Amino acid sequence: MPHRNGMAEQEDTVTQALALLSAGDAERAAAMLRALLREDASDAEAWHAMACVARAGGDMQAAVALAGRAIGLRPEGHFHITLAHALLAQGHDEPARAAAHVAVMTTPRDPRAHEAMAAVLEAQNRVPDAELALRTALRLRPLDCEKHLALAAFLARHGQGAEALSVSEKALRLAPENSFAQNQHALLLERAGRLRDAEPFFGAVAAAFPQDAAALANFGAALFAKGEFEQARSVLEDSARRVPDAPETRSNLGLVQMALGALDDAERELGAAHALRRQDARLAVNYGTVLADLGQRQAAEALFRQAEASDAPEQDRARARFNLGTLLLAEGRFQEGWQAFEARQALLPASQTEDLPPWDGADTGGQPVLLYAEQGLGDTLQFLRYVEPALARAPVLLSVPEGLRALVAQEESVREGRVTLLRKGQTARAFGAVASCSLLSLPARLGLDTPYPWRMAFSLPGSERGLPEPGAMRPETGPETRPERNAGTGTEGSLLRVGLCWAGNPGYRFDRRRSMPLACLAPLADVPGVVFQSLQSPQPLQHAEGSDVPPFPLTPLPEGDMLATAHVIAGLDLVITVDTAIAHLAGVLGKPVWLLNRFGGDWRWAEGSTRHLPDGRAENLWYPSLRLFSQPEPGEGAAPWRLPVEAVAQALCKLVKM
């Protein structure tokens, strides 16, 4: 038997070997241990350390044999922990449980024993018992960040996301600079749908590991979620340079390029991502989306249909079908388009249905149905027209956002009492509703294969001024139609009154493409005989750089809801706007509206919603008073707006001179 100094030297050698193993140098660790065992084959710690080397190298059979030999020499609790993990990795969960049980009984205050038992119990689907074992390990080391992280990861795996985040936050408080803790917390936030909140944590990890492509990719995705597109592009490009064959990175980079308007670059990146993983429905849909925006609709349709027919998760197939729906609507293929458009219901959070069953559009025998606003204000205004044909089949209870309620109260069917407009706090169930339906679902439920025609259904003071005859708004190359000027006295009354809206909600992912800084409209300042009225809400005013410095005198929009804005529009001769709710509001009021439309714009402004009249004129099927001024090509920033804004300025000059 070796003397005491010899034993100390052996322990030091084992400790050094395990340190080498921890540092990733398994080869040197094994060499030291083999030399030690040649001198003394009875060293149980050395055999156990060899088991650890084998387990680290993935040789679980050897790990089991080596741990067993160590236990045969001296049955230490931590030897059983290693044996339990090795047996579990081989799929022998019951022998692993027995080994973990010995470890827990032998060393009840060793948290590693309880962690080993938790791993075995989780593998046996004994989730509550596994959680209890992990919490025991944490109770033994309450200030150990790693123990909190292990419990948080377990809770997340078993659907306890909120509790997992709470435990993860405690881990971060214990070790705020721990990169592993920051990364896991960020991943938990991402899983909870809070990728924007994960950005500072992914950022800290990327700063700690600037050469790590995965860390950069996660940081770039979080920046994208926050709308910090330029920085996201830079970070994702760095990640893609390091690992070019990472499809998620290439896809996220493509989506960032798409949000910035660089559609050709987006097509290249999204195409590369799809090529790397052709069976991934999400990547196929992303690629199809940019192809559709570039006008390559046939190729996009094929991708959407392929993804819809795949065995992908339901959400991915629903997204493919929804995108197919918008493509079909853009082409005027309304019958199939409306049905595919319904897939959006699977992608949206719970709506204002009051848990009523969905209405199928059939006659209800006089029992009322709830029709509710589903998405943005513009969508609500556009689809309000379908309330009229719905009334032929059921009494209607209508629910709209509070900001629209006063305006919708002026709608003809509401004023006449044929539609009950619910006030805040009122429920459809209290009025006896038997079913519910989104306004956007009415075309599909009612079986209406073409857009329901526009008609003037609002009555506002001044809204009758400046109305064009149906079909009077011309294509860009056609003659102008001049609205009637507002009555008035003095210089102001003889001027053309024009409303301007240049930016939408910055929360929309592709807002950079549809919105512009107010400075882009500077060419309108050179048009004589015009006074400008802002139709811009304060939030987007602060969104685009330079948008709060008007290049010409601009009357601010008074505070108020959409009815107040409608009264302002009613007193105007013309509205010039980007694709926001203002376009719809002016359209439903019948005001001449010139839409500055982004390249690859929304389906409702596409060719499928355009009617060509016998005399060569064109009109939008949704709003006859609307005229398009579209970007001729995609691009970033203000550059793509130059030509359409110049066309608007020229058209405005002609209008003033008429």
UniProtKB/TrEMBL annotation:
Domain of life, per lineage: Bacteria
Classification via InterPro entries: TPR-like_helical_dom_sf (IPR011990), TPR_rpt (IPR019734)
Region (Disordered): 463-490
Protein name per the record: Tetratricopeptide repeat protein
